[in-house]
């Protein structure tokens, strides 16, 4: 017989079992808050095409039974790419996003991604709270307090505050893997950690480290084999994804971000900001996390980010300059290599601003280097093509060309279903009217503009 004595505990014969109520309540409150914040952000045009619009298009393709591709992602496609939509598995490896396809098929709105992200965060909060209850039985309120700290931590808030990202799927997987590890269920822990391989290509290193932790803690042969299998399998899978799978889908046959590690702005630079980053991560637990072997899981991600030549990844700085080739921060924060050679008609170096895709999304309107200007994306559910001397808008919204084409040819700017990029209903720039606040820069000079 179970007697309910308090919301925090249940008294059972033979001992005390923590109640699920308190962590569940904390997770539910954070779910409501995070969902309301994300949807409000989107309604106020504070979400972007990078990355909400891109993932919205990816999920739409998965829902239709096709491999993910994005017209928005062509903004920073490799030079020479002429397609209307970039294959996203050639950019990052995140097949786990396909799980949202059936949901999107039922509710074909980009807001589904924002709600899903809040649900994934709350699931991790609940699991973390329950883990604290189990392993800190002498501390009253450990479950809800630790759960709340997890949900309100700097890293979690940064995730919720920026559009949608596939790494949200890693939160509950890591929470479940760590709970099983602490409980001594090492094979289950290895199984949960293996799921990280489907979230993003760089998480293979994290899964491999987790496998080594399982090996270190294992006390029997089966657990030890599971650990070695995870460590070796994750390492091999990461290499195959980076060297074979992603290049097979990439337009230029290579992994776009490989050159960002170790050159230019690298490991030895920017340590004041990097040190603050580490301190902000440690502050969540008051530094106590370093006493746990699970702290080793921090090293892979911190390592490649701090060694990256993309300043945004290492320090949050905006731009890197160079000669001959420059490394710039793409719309929404992607660092991509771009050709700056004079006369290269393939260079996609004119970045305009598109509004309405998922708020404000910066994309180039270049049509493969033949013309450069501004794009305007109208309300959801429309499609359009820009063209002609000043361009035309087609449909209720869609895309409208706002700037004159370059002298060497007509402008081409296309997008399939601007609504799939995440425009709120009734949002965007109604009737294809230009937003006078929009401007573009080309070669460091402010260019003139003409209305459509």
Automatic annotation (TrEMBL):
Q: Where are the transmembrane segments?
A: 20-39, 112-129, 135-155, 188-215, 227-250, 275-299
InterPro entries hit by this protein = STSV1_Orf64
Q: Which domain of life is it from?
A: Bacteria
Extent of Basic residues compositional bias: 438-452
Alphabetized UniProt keyword annotations: Membrane, Transmembrane, Transmembrane helix
Cited Pfam families: DUF2079
Positions with biased composition (Gly residues): 381-398
Q: Where is the region Disordered? A: 330-349, 373-452
Q: Indicate what this protein is called per its UniProt record.
A: DUF2079 domain-containing protein
Q: Which organism is it from?
A: Streptomyces hydrogenans
The beginning of the lineage is: Bacteria, Bacillati, Actinomycetota, Actinomycetes, Kitasatosporales
